[in-house]
Amino acid sequence: MLGSHYYHEIIRKTIISFGTLFNNVSIKHYDKNDQNVIDEMRVPLAYAPRQKFLARLTQQSELNKSVAITLPRMSFEMTSLQYDPSRKTGVTQTFKALDGDNNLKKVFMPVPYNIGFELNVYCKLNDDALQIVEQILPYFQPALNVTIDLVSSIGEKRDTPIVLNSVSFVDDYEGDFTTRRALIYTLSFTAKTYLFGKVSDNSDGLIRKVQVDTYTNTDPVTAKREMRYTVTPKAKEDKNNDGVINTVDDALLGPQDDFGFSEGFEFFTDGRSYNIGQDSDL
């Protein structure tokens, strides 16, 4: 499987979904009586490391420039990507899914990964920072589920918990009168997502039939078979008798499946044995 190209954009989609959560945060300034709104602004959000914003603040040549143009601001970045063994499933397990053309595909179970994020809030005024933080924290208790279309080709959508790990802040007020103050709140998050491998172009490897032969004894030379038991999942039957079993009208797929089985019994006295390689009785 290695070397066979595929790209589901799962990490990219998770980053975009995380940033979208904080894309509509706004602050308001009131008059001295705290009754009338005199100023309202949407807080700008960018994907960038904290050090980049701090450098822009400290290296701004025009220190008399309006503070509102630079602050408040928010930035976020992906900080880690780590395997999560607590959500591990069997590495050889597969499941079935339909693509956009209703063809049955084989997909290996996804691998659980935790993606770490850091959200930074930069403000000049402490009240601005508190307004922003209080619009974020109540939604995380400590997790907020976000539905992400992880694999579009098979319609695999999952609720991804985004967990708030910690909140910290620092007030960079030290320095002379020409040094710009920066009040910074840092919120640490973990997104618990899954990474999917390549979606098979066919359904090879799916169990379509189980066959068991029973014998009179355990001697490999003298044992004679007497009965054959076969089981076929009803979901794989050709219900329309059209020779096609990989369409949605022939296979019940999804959480609502009962996946009943068709059972068969055959009795033999011919003394033959089933040959797997030739798929026949010899």
Protein architecture, described:
The chain is mainly beta and 282 residues long. The chain folds into two domains: 10-195, Myoviridae tail sheath stabiliser (STM4215-like, 2-Layer Sandwich); 210-281, no CATH class. It is built from four helices and 15 strands. It has helices at residues 10-20, 50-58, 67-70, 126-134, and strands at residues 26-30, 37-42, 45-47, 73-83, 94-98, 104-108, 111-123, 143-151, 156-172, 182-195, 210-215, 225-233, 261-267, 274-275, 280-281. The strands form five sheets. The chain has a six-stranded mixed β-sheet with strand order 3-4-7-10-9-8. Strands 11-12-13 form a three-stranded antiparallel β-sheet, with no helix packed on it. Strands 1-2 form a two-stranded antiparallel sheet. A hairpin with a 4-residue loop joins β8 and β9 (156-172). The longest helix has 11 residues, at 10-20. The chain starts with 9 loop residues before the first helix and ends with a strand. Mean pLDDT is 79; it is low at 245-256.
